[in-house]
Specification:
The protein has 171 residues and is mainly beta. The chain has one helix at 2-24, and strands at residues 38-48, 66-75, 79-88, 101-114, 135-139, 145-149, 153-160, 163-170.
Length: 171
């Protein structure tokens, strides 16, 4: 009889744990910002590490060597939450030309729908074409505006050795 009691006790414990798991997960999980009516999450990673490529030339001819990474949660009201980092890369080793270091990017962003034809002047576009020609024109804290495809997916562009862009758009 001891074996049967032990089996019934284990079955009871398993049933209790199963009920507890169902009770604690019965609600809908909202991963981020339900009240803000989020439309999409966007991640951008861009690196410019080839000093012979025109975009990587020192400012004002280009952006210099370095990179930027940021994540934006886009809300239905044309705003978004922003987090990321930007860094400068030293070319030629420590003490060589260029700058090195990183800085945090935090704050809010604004956005609007656009097409390539109606994009704001000066918007950054790296050839990440949306199959429906519909883009988020996302303005981040440094004042730059990036054209991000609205179609969910992963986009990657290699412009030259050491010059690449990756964008991920998720619901």
């Amino acid at each position: 009889m001891t074996g049967l009691r032990r089996l019934l006790s284990l079955a009871g414990l398993a049933a209790t744990l199963a009920l507890a798991a169902v009770a604690t997960s019965a609600g809908t999980a909202f991963a981020y910002g339900r009240a803000d009516h989020p439309l999409a999450q966007v991640e951008v990673s861009a690196n410019c590490d080839n000093p012979s490529f025109p975009l990587c030339q020192p400012f004002p001819a280009g952006v210099g060597t370095g990179g930027i990474w940021y994540w934006v949660e886009l809300d239905a009201d044309g705003t978004g939450d922003l987090s990321g980092a930007a860094c400068g890369h030293t070319v030629g080793g420590v003490g060589g030309p260029g700058g090195a270091g990183a800085g945090s990017i935090k704050g809010t962003a604004t956005w609007q729908y656009t097409t390539l034809e109606t994009a704001p002047p000066g918007a950054i576009f790296f050839g990440t074409f949306d199959p429906h020609d519909r883009y988020y024109a996302v303005t981040i804290t440094d004042g730059s505006t990036w054209l991000i495809p609205t179609t969910t997916g992963h986009y990657a562009q290699k412009l030259a050795n050491g010059v690449q862009l990756q964008i991920t758009v998720a619901p």
